Amino acid sequence: MSLQESTQATQRGNFQKVNRDVLRALQPGPLYFALLGVCLIVIAFGVWAWSHQVLEGLAVTGLRHPVMWGAYITTFVFWVGIAHSGTLISAILFLFRARWRAAISRAAEAMTVFAVMTAGLFPIIHLGRPWLFYWLLPYPNERTLWVNFRSPLIWDVFAVGTYFTVSAMFFYVGLVPDLAVLRDNSTGWKRRIFSVASLGWLGTGREWKHFSSAYLFLAALATPLVVSVHSVVSWDFAVAIVPGWHSTIFAPYFVAGAIFSGLAMVLTLLIPARAILNLKDYITLHHLENVAKLIIVSSLIVSYAYLTELFFAWYSENPFAQTVFLSRAVGDFAPLFWLMVLCNCLAPLLFFFRKLRRNTGVLFAISLLINVGMWTERFVIISGSLAREYARTSWDIYSPSWVEWSILLASFAWFAFWFLLFIRHLPAIPIAEVKESMHRAAHDPSSLHTEQQT
Amino acid sequence: MIKRRDFLKTVGISGSAALLDACTGENSETLVPYLVPPEDIVPGVPAYYTTSCRECPAGCGMLAKTREGRVIKVEGNPRHPIGRGKLCIRGQASVQSLYNPDRFQGPQRRNEQGGLEPIEWDQAKELLVSRLNPLLSEGASQKVAWLGRLMTGSMESLVRQWLGALGSDRLLFYETFQYEALRRASEIAFGRLELPQYHLEEAQFLLSFGADFLETWRSNVEFTSAFQQMRSSRPSNAPDNFVYLGNRLSLTGSNADWWIPLRPGTEVQLALSIAHSILDQGLAVETAASQEWVRPLLAPYSPQSTQESTGVEVSTVRELARRLCEKPPSLALGGGISATGEQAVPLELAVLLLNALAGNIGKTVRFGTPSVLDRLASYQEILDLAQEMNEDKIQVLFLHHGDPVFTLPTSSGFAQALDNVPFVVSFSSLPDETTAHADLILPDHHFLESWGDYSPRSGVSTIQQPAMQPVFDTKATADVLLSTAQEMEELAARFTDSTYAERLRSHWDATIRKTLDEEIPWEEFWPDVLTRGGHFQEQPLLEVDLHNISEHLQVTEETLVGPEEGKSLLLYPSPYFFDGRNVNNPWLHEIPDPTTQLVWDSWVEVHPETARELALAEGDVVELTSPYGSLTAPVHLYDGLHQDVIAMPLGRAKSADLRYASKEGVNPMQLISPEPAADSGSVLWRSVRVGITKTGARHPLVSLQSEGAERPEDALVAIQPVEAPDAAQRIRPSELEAPEAHSQEHGPVDYYPPHEHPDHQWSMVIDLDACTGCNACAAACYAENNVPVVGRELCGHGREMSWLRIERHQKPLIRETDVVFTDRISLPVLCQHCHNAPCEPVCPVFATYHNPEGLNAQVYARCVGTRYCSNNCPYKVRRFNWHTFTVPEPLQLQLNPDVTTRTAGVMEKCTFCVQRIQEGKNRARCEDREVGDGDVTPACAQTCPTDAIVFGDLNDPVSRVSQLAGHPRNYHILEQLNTRPAVTYLKKLVPEKPFTEE
Amino acid sequence: MNGVLGIFENRENLVRALKDAQTKGWKQLEIFSPYPDEELFELIDPGKSPVRWMTLAGTLTGAICGLALTIWTALQWPLLITGGKPLISLPPFLVIAFELTILFGALATVGGFLYWGVVRRFFRSLPYDSRFSQDHFGLWIECSKDEIKQVLSWVQESGATEWKEQ
């Protein structure tokens, strides 16, 4: 039954269907538990690898003088980047009144929260003395020694901390009405939990009024925040004097890259999810196609940034910058560099063909490519520049050790673990919002975004 | 005003007196913690003891710095004429021989199974006595022989007397590197069988025929500072006054301005043709030139005629002749190990002749001050001893230090001869190839543990004080001799001294105090000796005249045995390991070799051209085969070689069971000829041609300096004259006239105002024109700052911890002409203590910050290990603790209690020896005065033999740094980054004109 | 509290009924809806939500706290010079100030929503029907005991499919 007909008929059927479909998606199956199990095993292995590193010292990693940052920081930046598209979809597109984002906004928000939770682990994992990580927090102590607010790493603490708090609140506030739905459709202890979680939501006009207002302002705050967060992350590098890092374009460059990688991750998650959870009627090809279009845009921005960097290096005639970029283009880092160009600049161009961007198989494949490409990009920028710093006599080559690889893998498992929990216990589709857009569709045919189905 | 050091040294005397008994091991219960504290050991305050370095025969004066009764560092004794307060890298590392974990922990005996088993000292003495008594009873003569390191004064007299009592006078002094040829030559030319004393400091021009006087040749510390005096006085518009002729560009060679790569065996012809050219151009001094035999002798050696064989242009020879004579005095140094072949004596003669013609005799070449080296037994004499050993003439052989089995040509059969001796006693304190053949091992004290005296040359008598209790159950050899003598009734009467120390004092009283012109009471004499470190007096200059040398100067074609297609083998003493006696000192392995930048291995150096012919790559293991033996070693490509030569360092590897010694490429001595030189009886260091065959195996060599030049992307940096690190230190006269081109004043460039340094502003100036790249500073840094050693594997992973590295910037050598510009700069790189330090603002926890005295402080306790500071350091001088590095017992006893040891996950780096700064300030405060120039000297600057490193307070206008900081040659590395380093470099002077004008 | 709850199956009837009820002068009205519908809550509670003021207050506090924290802490240990920068180097401090502005703003906004949207509701005992969270709409008219009859009959006319009184 399609929503087309629903516009003639009464909405009741659809509203019920929404509840039914979304709630049906919450019945766990064997595949689900299998996936969950795999995740837990991989996480356990990662934890073991890390404890090995804590006991032995960082010598167990591939890090070396002068490449002091490698896979860990790369992965940190990667996950922070992933988080961004979630906010883009749920907040920025919301402000732009792009109603189509409704169906995928919940999943995107969830992705944001979990991605930040993952990213947040890495600055601690990479520390030489991780047990002292709390020294990076400004807390009153007997030495009256506070943190160094001039250090980009402290900016990170604040930016990422704020980002996590805000996106978590944003996620929860949006969830409240849907929790009420769960409450009304469950019994026993579950019902009790949900009624507390939903703050006894009744759906009165006044509740809705304050809800909408709060949601709007949170979106309005999240938008500059998301831009600032990845700018700050990029400044970890841009404020350093390392050739290949020290560049003014880094903030916009990294924000674009973040959105880019995040959108790819949205596809990577939603394409399987909508199939497994039969949410095809809600997360439609139309949505995926719109995401693909956004990917084209951000990909072009990223490619432009690459070119600008190369141009700077060439035009500045700064031999150190030139050395770094030569080492990327034709030196030891060439394979990674060209892999990154292939994945981030060339592959997305296929989305210019309508046929391809409406083919879930292609979408999924390319989204994976972009994930790989963006991780590689950060790797090349971070270790590639450090390996070719000013002191030529100290140059060296870095490749991650098994410890770093397993912790990277574990981070994906950790992320997937939370996402699995999410799709099984919380509505992956924002029920109220979908109903709202159905209502709008019924009332002004001008906003028939969600209805273009084939 | 008494300086604190003198005070402590005087204090040291009573202390040593207190320790004296301890050194005989009788009452070793007076160890810390003290029940009754000795007054000279104040916890927290170092006590210094004067002594003599015995790492090599040079015998530099040494100060042992002790804390709470253990030696933590050694430094040069400023009052000693040899070294004058400086030590080389080997001297700095000698504390690691003292605390070496592989030392013999006590006496050992060879058992029936042929293994060594520990025994008690009493048993050991019994055993010895039981082997000696029969000899005495049958009144045998010459049945006992002693082969050992150089001894002088009381020790020598004791040993001679002791051997005499046993009816023998077979006392042979053995050193691996001897100078028989030079001695023989000076005997022929000047009738003096002694090594001439060279005075580099007075030379205007220096010519070295492969003599590596900055590394291992004779007395390297002394020569290095003299060399610096000679260099510092040269004009900046024509700064090239050192030419090195040899077939390998050694560390010494790369400090020359020009290198003339010689075909092996043609040194003599070249020397003679230079002499010829001197006469030609009428530059010779009359006294020498007038001798009627001179011209006939030189006639056949016109530059034209030698050009063919030597490959050196006529113009070059004429130029060399001109430079030798234009500004007298000059100096020609002859025949290093690399040139010691059949032609060694003729070469030395030719070189002496050059000096004579240039009028250097009596000026830069002096006689009348015999060196202790003159008393070495020649290789021939040692072969004779071996012969007697084979003929069962020797019943008991004493081996006192030195490792002849390892350092003599293996095919000389010394090892077999050793096995033929019924009873071999070794006093070595470290297991080596020779102790493997000993029947009884009576480990001697380390020189820092025992009394002694040593006189490296006449007029210089050094006292050697015990600075601490013995680390292991060892005994001073002298005391062993005395006590065994007292246990043998025939001898007991003749050896009355209870201890060696007693004998030492009486000897000094008799041989020195009593011979003084004015009468000095013992109570004054002895403390003075101990505080000064010995007794020193000037020797009168001896007038010599040149004899007719023509009939001894027979120039023949040098014959090398071995395969025709093979390469001439050049063995050179390793700059760090000499002949391998300190092969087990980890610092020396971890500090990159100055010419190759390699660590932890031994290797064979092959010219890239040769490598191309043989399809060899860096790290390929090759087999070297000579008529006398063969060995395998990894290949290192080095373009500082003559193409007919392959070179191999001696002493980096040993087969003995030593945890730090490399096992690759032992032992080069098995390749060379056992035949002694006919005329001088020396080892024929250059005697063989070796065949090279690729084994297919690989042993990658670890270099701590990345060869950026090999990477494609590096091409760009290389062509940037200003930016490229190695090009940045060039200076041309034009720049000398326009120093502001390198001024540190950036003024308005900065966004923020400069910060204040109210009291002090510590700063360092490093003169690249003075730095020879000897790495003594690096070793001093390891010793002073408890810098951990990480080992070969971790070095390979780029986890080395050195705070101070000497970068070698050497362009590939261009061989267009016969004269090669040695385009080399040794660049010591340490924390630059920048005023705008990039590392500081990025640290989230203030673990590093800029302190009010201009130091870039690093607070280990506060560091959480984000490693951001290291990323942001353009000089890459920060080191991260990848593990918690530890040292095996008892090496930890050497750790400096003033410096915390670091644990895993913490960043560290050079602190400008902040603990020494603190000590200097405390001293000033105690003496109630301002901190003055020279109160604070970091370890690196303290030991630098050329004073290339100067440290001080920029706020003090009269300090040396303040004066040097504005020097026209000054610049900062990566100045364009505006980090405002506290370390200023002075550019190296390089010739701007080619060697020959025409 | 007394009143009548009308349950509507579709929105149009609810809107009609609501407007009608308001003309009748019943002040204490509340509606229930499964999704946010500006039209509806404009009718029931015209004017803007006060949450916006919380947001403003929050952001301002955040900005001030950010600067205060960074500057005050820097002054706590005036010896800690890094990289030749003065103790109070504003550019980096502004980054912290910005992040705190956002953080406090967001916290205040949520606070505002919780107060007006949730806490305030606890003081009113409203009826509820679980279908409101699915597809039904509701209109609650609060009135005195004696009015109930009259209201109830009106509700039955208003197009509601069910009704409850309490």
Helix content of chain B: 25-40%
* Low confidence ranges of chain C: none
Strand order of the largest sheet of chain C: 2-3-1-4
CATH class of one domain in chain B: Alpha Beta
- How does the helix and strand content of chain C classify structurally? alpha+beta
Question: Termini separation of chain C (Å)?
Answer: 8 Å
Given the structure, what is the number of helices of chain C? Answer: 5
Strand content of chain C: 5-15%
Order of helices and strands of chain C: EHEHHHEHE
Query: What does the average pLDDT of chain C come to?
Result: 85
Q: Describe the main β-sheet of chain C briefly.
A: 4 strands, antiparallel
Estimate the strand proportion of chain B: 15-25%
The count of DSSP E runs of length 2 or more, i.e. the number of strands of chain B, is 38
Coarse structural class of chain B: alpha/beta
Shape of chain B: globular
Q: Indicate the multimeric state.
A: heterotrimer
Q: Whole-number radius of gyration of chain C?
A: 25 Å
Percent of residues of chain C in helical segments?
40-55%
Largest sheet of chain B: 7 strands, mixed
> CATH fold name of one domain in chain B, please?
Alpha-Beta Plaits
Task: Report on this structure.
The complex is a heterotrimer of chains A (454), B (998) and C (166). Chain A has 454 residues and is mostly helical. Chain A has helices spanning 3-8, 12-24, 30-56, 71-95, 102-125, 152-184, 188-197, 205-238, 250-276, 285-316, 319-329, 334-346, 354-357, 360-386, 402-425, 431-443. Chain A is globular and about 75 Å long. In chain B, β4 and β5 form a beta hairpin. Mean pLDDT of chain B is 86; it is low at 7-32 and 709-748. Among the domains of chain B are: 197-366, Dimethylsulfoxide Reductase, domain 2 (3-Layer(aba) Sandwich), CATH 3.40.228; 567-699, Barwin-like endoglucanases (Beta Barrel); 761-812 and 820-989, 2-Layer Sandwich (Alpha-Beta Plaits), CATH 3.30.70. With 166 residues, chain C is α+β, with helices and mostly antiparallel strands. Chain C has five helices and four strands; from the N terminus they run βαβαααβαβ. Chain C has helices at residues 11-23, 38-44, 51-76, 90-122, 148-157; strands at residues 3-8, 29-32, 137-142, 162-165. A four-stranded antiparallel sheet of chain C has the order 2-3-1-4. In chain C, α3 runs antiparallel to α4. At the A-B interface, α6 and α11 of A face α24, α28 and β34 of B.
